[in-house]
Each structure stands twice: as structure tokens, then as C-alpha cells.
Amino acid sequence: MSKFTIVNQEFLPAETASVLITDLAIQRGYGIFDFFKTIDGRPVFLEDHLDRFYNSAAAMHLTVDLSREELKTLLLKLIEKNGIADSGIRITLTGGYSPDGYGIAKPNMIITQTEMILSKQISLEGISLITHQYQRQLSYAKTLDYLMAVWLQPVIKEKGADDVLYHNNGIVSECPRANFFIIDQSGHVVTTRENLLKGIIRKHVLEIAGGLNLLQHRDITLDDLKNCKEAFITSSTKNILPVTKIDGRVVGDGYAGPVSKLLSEKLQLKAAQH
């Protein structure tokens, strides 16, 4: 259980920390966030997450009062005060208390920490996805906009799947909270290049795959999903999670494949060095 939450640099009891209902994040869903994990009290890929946080803020016309070093100091102090070894830390920057409920105001920054049970082994059985035509707004920024993902939850459940995979006119992009990869018939690691949020774990998987001469950048089509040897998603909480079924069709032999396992092992080693 988290003891403290930070609201605008003030450490507050987690159970009572709050912002006003006039915040633009509540009134219009306007704001950004970033999320990273700690392992044994150590932030993982923190510099990458801070890069994305400041880039998202700039893209959404939100000012960050703290310098990068000031924010890092604040985050490390929260980790120390809460004393949670394995956790997820979320930095939220809202649209602020807009006088007219529409224009951007001085942002509020909220930092929360939640205990997590983190698996260090790849799931062999993986997950099931369904595809859905949708292009997320401002996909290059990590915004608060998850309207479609939440709206689709009953559909996902009804079809016995675990999550949804977006595509736009037949070109696959991403899951709501994860990036998507396939291993094609030639053994290449393939990921779509455009119209998606470039995740932190995605970045490191690309570096690993490139170092193994397995990387290929090109659009992934819906037809590619029918013929791929393996598929997986990546995120800060899931690392590499195999996808073993898409729209009811089994991927590969229905279990985590050898390339996914290899990448997962190398990612774990890389994360331990950061």
C-alpha cells in the first residue's frame, strides 16, 4: 500500500490526495501521463520515460514547472518515502483549473506509486486479441484519451479475448496500452512505424532485434496477422507478452515462440543494467 502521493510537489497521504473537479482533465479529459516501474526500489528506463513525458507535455501545450533534475529528485524521494520495492509510478499532468472549462490553464502534476507483482518470466500461453478499426488521436503523445479502449471492454469480454488491436484501413498500429510486433515467415521482427505511441519497451526491443539482425520496419497488414509465425505485445508492465490468438485464429503453435523467448531474455538483462 502506498503511503504518499505527490500533488504539485506536496507529499500527501495517498488516501486523501485530490484535485478539484474543475480540472480540465475531469471536465474535458485533457492531460498527459507517463508510467514506469521500479524493481527492488530502482526505476527502470527512467531517462526514456522522462524524455517521453516532457515530449508529450510539449506536444499538448502543457508546461512543466520542474526541470528534469528536479522531477527526478522528487520521484526518488517518493520512492524512498513509500519504501515499495516493486511498483508502478505514474506521473499525470492535467489541463489545470480552466476558468471557462475549455482553455488550458496551469497544469496540476500528480505522482502516484502503486505496489506491483512483476513477473520475470515470459508467459508461455500468452493472450488473445481482437482487431478493431480505430486511429487514436495525437498518437505520438501519451494522453489521457482511452475512450475507445474503455468503450470496447464489453465487446472484448463477449468475444473471450484479453485486449484489442487497432488497425486503420487494414494497417495494424497498436493496442491501447501496448505496442505490437510480429515475427514473419522469414524470422524477422516486424513492427509498424507510424500512427502509434512509441513505447519505451518497444524502443529497447527494437535495439535488441536490430543487434541480432532480425529487425524489419514496415507496415503490418491484417493479412500479415494470418501468416505470422509469432506475435507479441510490449509495455512497461508486461515487458514482452506473447499473443497466441488473434480474432479467434491461433498464432503459430499457440504458445510463446523461440524469437519471443529470446527477446524476452535479452530484455530482462538489459533492464537489469538500467
Walk me through what this model shows:
- With 274 residues, the chain is an alpha+beta fold.
- It is built from 8 helices and 17 strands.
- Strands 7, 8, 9, 10, 11, 12, 13, 14, 15, 16 and 17 form an 11-stranded mixed sheet that branches. The protein has a 6-stranded antiparallel sheet with strand order 2-1-6-5-3-4.
- The two termini are 25 Å apart.
Notable traits:
17 strands; 11-stranded mixed β-sheet; alpha+beta; 6-stranded antiparallel β-sheet; 8 helices; single chain; 274 residues
What is this entry, summarized?
By secondary structure, the protein is α+β, with helices and mostly antiparallel strands. 28% of the residues lie in helices and 30% in strands.
Order of helices and strands: EEHEEHHEEEHHEEEEEHEEHEEEH
Low-confidence stretches: none
- Average of pLDDT: 96
How many helices? 8
In one word, what is the shape? globular
Radius of gyration: 19 Å
Query: The biggest beta sheet, please?
Result: 11 strands, mixed
Name the beta content range.
Answer: 25-35%
Percent range for helical residues? 25-40%
How many strands appear in the DSSP assignment?
A: 17
Topology, element by element:
Elements: E1 4-7, E2 10-13, H1 24-27, E3 31-39, E4 42-43, H2 46-59, H3 68-82, E5 87-94, E6 109-115, E7 127-133, H4 147-151, H5 153-158, E8 163-168, E9 171-172, E10 174-175, E11 178-183, E12 189-191, H6 200-211, E13 215-217, E14 220-221, H7 222-227, E15 230-235, E16 239-246, E17 249-250, H8 258-272
Parallel strand pairs: 7-8, 7-16, 12-13
Antiparallel strand pairs: 1-2, 1-6, 3-4, 3-5, 5-6, 8-9, 9-14, 10-11, 11-12, 11-15, 15-16, 16-17
Helix pairs in contact: 6-8
